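quick one before i forget lol
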Amino acid sequence: MLKMLEAIFKGKIATEEIHITGAKRMRGQLVTTKVDCDLEACAKACPVGAFTVENGKPVIDYKKCLFCGKCVEACASQGLQHANREVLAEILEETQVQVSQQVKATLGRSLHVRHLDAGSCNACDFEMGALSNPIYDLHRYGIAFVASPRHADMIMVTGVVTRNLEKALRMTYDAMPEPKLVMACGACAAGGATYGDTYAIVGKVSDVVPVDIAVPGCPPRPSAMIIALCAAADLLNEKLK
């Protein structure tokens, strides 16, 4: 800890500016580079059914998408590629929230979040743990995690909802004061198709409680989570008006 503080003071650790674009190797939004590309093989390669073809054009359900790259590998003409841009802006448009290229701390109030693991593999949870480190520094946006749903403005759910935790999710949601928000974080929570249909799984979060914001990814990047959290704070401000 002392060495980390020393590095911060010496400028060796800098807080990262939050963008919707990442490194060149990042698997982000899917784009087609050829008009006459045959996409049927790409659709068949998708393990969660997130890739479909309508009128010769790809239709991607990013809430289900694992960003595994199998569709890109299956594209014989190499006309399908991953861009290094988050698809979060497209998803957030469904909640009428505008996301800028660079998120700034312009919140009118703080946002208190209760995290609930409904049955995840913990990948999203590990990325979430990075939010409070010196690189991402979530607290600079006035956002903090709380221990009780009674103190929370929003619950941030990771993982597909299992039958053993369905009741816990409902009770957590009911315990929150109004107005309240729900964020489905990651492909399991947002799309629910990662593990298929089994006796142990209820489904995605929206099958149990209403979802206001979904964060795509398997797992999402910490920066994507911060963008969504800032957008959630703006959405909460709208509800309070």
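fyi Residues 98-107 have pLDDT under 50 and may be disordered.
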